[in-house]
Write a structure and sequence with these properties.
Layout: H1 7-13, H2 39-46, H3 61-73, E1 78-82, H4 85-96, E2 102-106, H5 111-118, H6 120-123, E3 127-131, H7 136-142, E4 147-153, H8 165-174, E5 178-182, H9 187-190, E6 200-204, E7 218-222, H10 225-238, H11 244-254, H12 257-276, E8 281-285, H13 295-301, E9 308-313, H14 316-326, E10 331-332, E11 342-344, H15 356-361, E12 368-372, H16 378-391
Parallel strand pairs: 2-3, 2-4, 4-5, 5-6, 10-11
Antiparallel strand pairs: 1-7, 6-7, 8-9, 9-12, 11-12
Helix pairs in contact: 1-3, 3-11, 4-10, 14-16
Bound molecules: ligand LCS.
Ligand LCS binds next to helix 4.
Length: 392
């Protein structure tokens, strides 16, 4: 029955941990450890011969509820809850890479993902090639005999570039390369990378999945048992685990993902058109606009264009700065995917740790402004942007 349910029914009823009281909502199991009935029971749990909980760094019923739900929403085998989106990224990198390995990654990933590949993982002997993975030939040309991982973000942060997941996975399979897709901008409501051939999908749950800007969290979903068994020890042994309270809030936020995304997306579609027609705006990047470079791919690959917009003003950075300082309803803050509209400047904020050259190569110009559209009244968001643009 459950597999036939629509998204909003599934996201509410999936997962769950039955307890002796019949709690409708999985409670917060605020415990670091779980008692064993006897030595034999403890040994059986450690040997994996019996299901159960041992220690909250390994797993916990509240976290398991969230993991099981997201694995189901992504059509994956199992999921691994993590302390943050960056912990999820780190689980993937530490599990899939070792000294001498090579990564092909999109050149417009979230700033910290680019930074750790270029610094921390480089220090441990991992080489990375950053290319515009929205062009399939760039991916093909970047592959080396030691390439172990292709890492994509689609739509990418903050250029909203869209990669052809299916085509890239077909190329990767020919070379026995793992493909991981950071699905943060879409959430499983709009895109299911595992169905398109990816091996691993991850999210910063800080964004759309939780949706209320009150936690930081991440999750990795494996397509099969083999992939899960490869990923799990990184989370457990390196201590990238979630906290049960954080998992509870993420699970609660997840229940309304579909209706939040529908509303934010509806707002974003109208705001993108408003921006594109505004005389002070030079360009708008939004997958729902026919002017988006991968508009047709977005229509094929995603079930909707989402709620993230990037744009540039004709007056460049100075005009964008005045605009961001003038908004009254929208909040000048990093992060995204919450119920409130957020505006930020990637070159000086989320992507400031990259060199100017790396930013320019990736299309992150100094004038680019990123808008995460919330679920407020669309007219109020537009009125706010209108008055702020009037000052810029
Ligand atoms: N992946 C993507 C696509 C992200 O946008 C972020 C964070 C992460 C991973 C890391 O997730 P976290 O550890 O923060 O949960 N993106 C941010 C942004 O654009 N502004 O602030 C954080």
């Amino acid at each position: 029955m459950k597999s036939k349910l629509g998204f909003n029914s599934q996201v509410i009823h999936a997962g769950g941990q039955k307890d002796q009281w019949g709690s409708v909502v999985t409670p917060i199991y605020q415990t670091s450890t779980f008692s064993f009935r006897d030595v034999e029971h403890g040994a059986a749990l450690f040997a994996g011969e019996e299901d159960g909980y041992i220690y909250s760094r390994f797993c916990n019923p509240t976290i398991a509820d969230l993991e099981n739900t997201i694995a189901e929403m992504e059509n994956g085998y199992k999921a691994i809850g993590c302390a943050s989106g960056m912990a999820a990224v780190s689980v993937v990198f530490t599990a899939c890479l070792s000294a001498g390995a090579h990564v092909v990654a999109h050149n417009a990933l979230y700033g910290a993902t680019l930074t750790i590949l270029g610094t921390i993982f480089k220090k441990f002997g991992v080489e990375s090639t950053f290319v515009d993975t929205t062009v399939l030939d760039n991916v093909k040309n970047a592959i080396q005999p030691n390439t172990k991982l292709i890492f994509l973000e689609t739509p990418a942060n903050p250029t909203i570039g869209i990669c052809d997941i299916q085509a890239i996975c077909e190329v990767a399979k020919q070379h026995n390369i793992t493909v991981c897709v950071d699905n943060t901008f879409c959430s499983p409501y709009l895109q299911k990378p595992l169905d398109l051939g990816a091996d691993i999908v991850l999210h910063s749950m800080t964004k759309f999945i939780n949706g209320h800007a009150d936690i930081v969290g991440g999750i990795v979903v494996a397509k099969n048992k083999e992939e899960y068994d490869r990923l799990l020890p990184s989370m457990r042994n390196l201590g990238f685990n979630m906290d049960p309270h954080q998992a509870f809030l993420a699970r609660r936020g997840l229940k309304t993902l579909g209706i939040r995304m529908e509303r934010a997306q509806e707002n974003a579609g109208k705001i993108a058109v408003f921006l594109e027609n505004h005389p002070k705006v030079k360009s708008v990047l939004y997958p729902g606009l026919p002017s988006h470079p991968q508009y047709h791919l977005a229509q094929r690959q995603m079930s909707g264009p989402g709620a993230m917009i990037s744009f540039e003003l004709k007056g460049g950075f100075e005009a964008g700065k005045t605009m961001m300082n003038s908004v009254e309803l929208a909040v000048l803050a990093v992060s995204l995917g919450g119920i409130e509209t957020l505006i930020q400047h990637p070159a000086s904020m989320t992507h400031s740790k990259l060199s100017k050259e790396a930013r320019e190569k990736a299309g992150i110009t100094d004038g680019l402004v990123r808008l995460s559209v919330g679920i407020e009244e669309m007219e109020d968001i537009i009125a706010d942007l209108e008055q702020a643009l009037g000052k810029s």
